């Protein structure tokens, strides 16, 4: 059994890879940082290998797709992604395009090509890592990030229903966590206000739920409560609340 994990050099990607190895999967680790990938590789209890790839770049995504198909992977975890804090008016367009390439284009292409292979083989698991942000109407001051995660959520849900109607043995899940104790904050340039969950807890929780064919995976009681109560608010009110939360994140930098 083989799994491929993008964004495997740190955070939940690293911990998902380690947990998958612990339960018997050979793991292909994908990220840009060779040193960190080798550190993760040394922690695996099964056979593993690293694949250096920058998912902002099309030819590197092609490389990951080819590896996935050649190895006929049983599990794909699209985890790589990053955020960018700041007003849409002032944020750097080139950096936003890079985010869209990683968070959306790479996820879309990998999901499509690996799903086609798995459907032909009639089996496999795809876990797309989004965020609780993807379950919100929008995210002022993190607008592009929220939009990318909404895309991942919508894509996965639509494909799930197509797949279900085809009576396929491919299983699709989407992970929508709240704050996690990773280096996301440093990359995005922000700080969370809520208490963060540990990445190893989220990784193990998500994979266990994926193997139980859970469609939308939301770790953490507080996040689940927040998502439940947001249904009581209209969109404009909810956007105002989200904005005020985001402003406080930025003020902690």
Model description:
With 253 residues, the chain is of the alpha/beta class. It has a single domain, classed as NAD(P)-binding Rossmann-like Domain (Rossmann fold), CATH 3.40.50. The chain contains nine helices and seven strands. It has a seven-stranded parallel sheet, with helices on both faces. The longest helix is centred in the middle third of the chain and has 29 residues.
CATH topology: Rossmann fold
Q: Which structural class should the secondary elements be placed in?
A: alpha/beta
- Overall shape: globular
Count of DSSP helices? 9
Spatially, the strands of the biggest sheet line up as 3-2-1-4-5-6-7
Report the CATH C-level class: Alpha Beta
- Any idea what the radius of gyration is? 18 Å
Q: Low-confidence parts lasting 5 or more residues at pLDDT below 50?
A: 184-189
Report the biggest beta sheet as strand number plus sense, adding barrel if it closes: 7 strands, parallel
What is the CATH homology-level superfamily? NAD(P)-binding Rossmann-like Domain
**Integer average pLDDT:** 89
Q: What is the H-and-E element order?
A: EHEHEHEHEHEHHEHH
Beta-strand proportion: 5-15%
- Give the strand tally: 7
Distance between the termini: 43 Å
Overview in brief:
The chain has 253 residues and is an alpha/beta fold. The chain has one domain: Rossmann fold, CATH 3.40.50.720. Helices cover 51% and strands 13% of the residues.
């Amino acid at each position: 059994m083989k799994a491929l994990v993008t964004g495997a050099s740190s955070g939940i990607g690293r911990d998902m890879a380690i947990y998958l190895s612990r339960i018997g999967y050979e793991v292909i680790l994908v990220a840009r940082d060779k040193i960190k990938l080798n550190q993760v590789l040394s922690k695996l209890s099964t056979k593993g290998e690293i694949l250096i790839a920058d998912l902002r770049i099309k030819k590197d995504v092609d490389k990951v797709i080819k590896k996935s198909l050649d190895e006929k992977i049983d599990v794909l975890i699209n985890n790589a992604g990053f955020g960018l804090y700041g007003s849409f008016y002032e944020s750097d367009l080139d950096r936003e395009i890079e985010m869209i390439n990683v968070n959306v284009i790479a996820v879309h292409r990998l999901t499509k090509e690996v799903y086609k292979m798995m459907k032909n083989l009639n089996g496999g698991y795809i876990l797309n890592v989004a965020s609780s942000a993807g379950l919100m109407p929008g995210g002022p001051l993190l607008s592009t990030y929220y939009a990318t995660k909404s895309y991942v959520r919508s894509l996965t849900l639509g494909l799930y229903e197509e797949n279900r109607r085809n009576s396929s043995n491919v299983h699709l899940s989407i992970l929508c966590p709240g704050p996690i104790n990773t280096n996301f904050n440093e990359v995005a340039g922000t700080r969370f206000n809520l208490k963060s969950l540990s990445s190893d807890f989220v990784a193990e929780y998500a994979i266990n739920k994926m193997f139980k064919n859970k469609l939308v995976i939301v770790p953490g009681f507080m996040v689940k409560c927040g998502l439940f109560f947001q249904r009581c608010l209209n969109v404009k009110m909810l956007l105002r609340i989200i904005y005020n939360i985001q402003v406080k994140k930025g003020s902690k930098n």
